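quick one before i forget lol
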Amino acid sequence: MKGITPIIAIILLLLITVSMAGFAFVFLQRTLEQTTTSTETGLQNQLDQQGQTFAIDNIDDVGNMIAIRHTGSTASDTSKISVYIDDVLQSCTWNTPGAWVPGGGPRTCTVAAFACPKDVRITSPGNTDSTSC
């Protein structure tokens, strides 16, 4: 009987060690899966934002229009562009509002009356462009 007790103790210790290793494996696997998923989602969002870039093509202060071109690689929307004149946010009326694919040609934004010289700036998720007229 005295010779069996150490064997049973070793078997119990091995079972406890294996169960703890299994628990740690399952816990770390779930944690790594969640971390990978959230990192992948965040990276995709950043890539989408960086692909939404715009540039000012022309400024017409007589017609109060600003021509803007989509220079990015990701489809965007005119609602994601903010127009500032002398650092004041302007309400913009687009000639073609809504979805905007890259390479779709410039669109014009009509703003309140302004006279040059003014600093005109546009901001989008991917960049900022400014110029003076």
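fyi Strands lie at 54-60, 65-70, 76-77, 82-85, 88-90, 93-94, 99-100, 107-110, 119-123, 128-132.
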